Amino acid sequence: MKYTLLTPGPTPIPPSVLAKLAEPILHHRTSEFGAYFMEVVERLQRIYLTKNAVLVISSSGTGGMESAVANLVGPGDKTLVASAGAFGDRWGKLLKAYGHSPRMLQVEWGRAVDPDEFEKVLKAEAKGLACVFLTHTDTSTGIVNDLQALSRLVRRHSDALVVVDAVSGLGGEEIRTDAWDLDAVVSASQKGLMNAPGLAFVSVSDKAWSKAERAAGPRFYFDWRSMRDSLPKKETPYTPAVALVVAQAEALRLMEEEGLERIWARTAQLSEFTREKIQGLGFALFAKNPCRVLTAAVVPPSIDGKALVKRLREEYSVSIAGGQLHLMGKIVRLAHMGYIRRPDLERGFEALGDLLQKLSPAASPS
Ligand SMILES: *Cc1c(COP(=O)(O)O)cnc(C)c1O
C-alpha cells in the first residue's frame, strides 16, 4: 500500500527528486558538484526573495537555528524571543543553552504574536537590544505571524537584528526576505522545499554579517564566516550532504518552473480544502491566525487523538501529526506544503472518515 505522508516534515518528495538521490555520489571538490551547489544557492535566493548570500548547511533545521544563535549573539547581548508555540520556544531554549537569558514574549498557543503587544514589549526592552527572534509559521499550532509588521516594529524601536525561523513556512507561505528587512532567515530541506531531511539554509543580511564578524561566541562547524569564505570556490568548508544538495537543485528547479506566487496560491487553496474537510468531520479549527502550509484541528472530546493518529498510520498507511506537549492527543495537524497535493489530502480524508466511523458508528448516518 502507498504510504501517504501528511506530516509537517518530513514531506513526500517528487519522483525526479527521489531519482537524484539515487545517483552515484559526486566528490564535493569538483566543478560538477560546484555547479549543483551554486544552483541551489542561486535558486534559493529567488525563493527567499533576497540578494543576500544563502548558506547551505548539512544539518536539520534546528542546526540552522543554532548557527544563527552562535553567529549573531555574543556574551551579554540582550535578546528577545516572540514565541507562539513549540518552535518559538525552541529559540528560547537554544539561547539558554548558549548561556544567554532571552526576554520571552509568550503568546497563547493557537494565536499569532499580536503586533500591539509585541510593540509594548519591544519599547520596554529596546535599549541595547541586539537580536529579536521570530517564527514565520509555528508548526506546533498552525499559526502564521505577520513578519512584515513585526519586523517593521523592530526597526522602528531598536537597532536589533531580526532573525526568523521559516523552516516550515518558506516555499508555501509568503515571505519576502529583503522587502521585509529580515536579517537572518532559517529554513530546511524537508518541509516546503520538497527534499529529504538533512539540509538547513540561512540567508544573512549585510547587517547580520557585520554582527557575525564581531560576535564573540564560540563556534566551529556552524561558523558562517568559514561558509562564506568557501562560497567563491563553490564549496562548503566540510563535506556537504552531497546527495541532498544534488536533489535540492532538482526540487528548486521544479518550484521555479511552477512559480513562487503560484505555489503560494495553490497552497492557500489546499489549506481551504483541508479546513473545510476537517470541519466536516466534526473537528474545530485550532489556529486563530491560520497559516497556509498546515492545518491544526481540535479532536472531538469523545475521541482519543493519540490513538487516532496511530491507527491511521497502522491501518491506513496515512501519516498525520498529533499535538505537541500539552496539546498531545488534543489536536491533529495535517500538512499541505511541498509536494503534498490534493489527491494526497483526499486519500487522507477518506481514511480519516472511515476510521472515525469505526470509532463511533452510532454517530454516523448510514
Ligand atoms: C520542522 C521545524 C523546525 C526544525 O526542525 P528540524 O527537525 O530540526 O528540521 C524548526 N522550526 C519549525 C517552525 C519547524 O516546522
Task: Report on this structure.
The protein has 366 residues and is an alpha/beta fold. It has 2 domains: 4-9 and 259-359, Aspartate Aminotransferase, domain 1 (Alpha-Beta Complex); 15-257, Aspartate Aminotransferase, domain 2. The chain has 12 helices and 15 strands. Strand 6 (137-138) and strand 7 form a beta hairpin.
CATH topology of the largest domain: Aspartate Aminotransferase, domain 2
Portion in helices: 40-55%
User: How many discrete domains?
Assistant: 2
Number of strands: 15
CATH level 1 class label of the largest domain: Alpha Beta
Main beta-sheet strand count, sense and barrel state: 7 strands, mixed
CATH architecture of the largest domain: 3-Layer(aba) Sandwich
Number of helices: 12
User: Rg from C-alpha positions?
Assistant: 21 Å
**Which regions contain 5 or more consecutive residues with pLDDT less than 50?**
none
What small-molecule ligands were found? Answer: pyridoxal-5'-phosphate
Give the DSSP E fraction (strand runs of 2 or more residues).
Answer: 15-25%
Q: Kindly report the spatial arrangement of strands forming the biggest sheet.
A: 2-10-9-8-5-3-4
The name of the CATH superfamily of the largest domain reads: Type I PLP-dependent aspartate aminotransferase-like (Major domain)
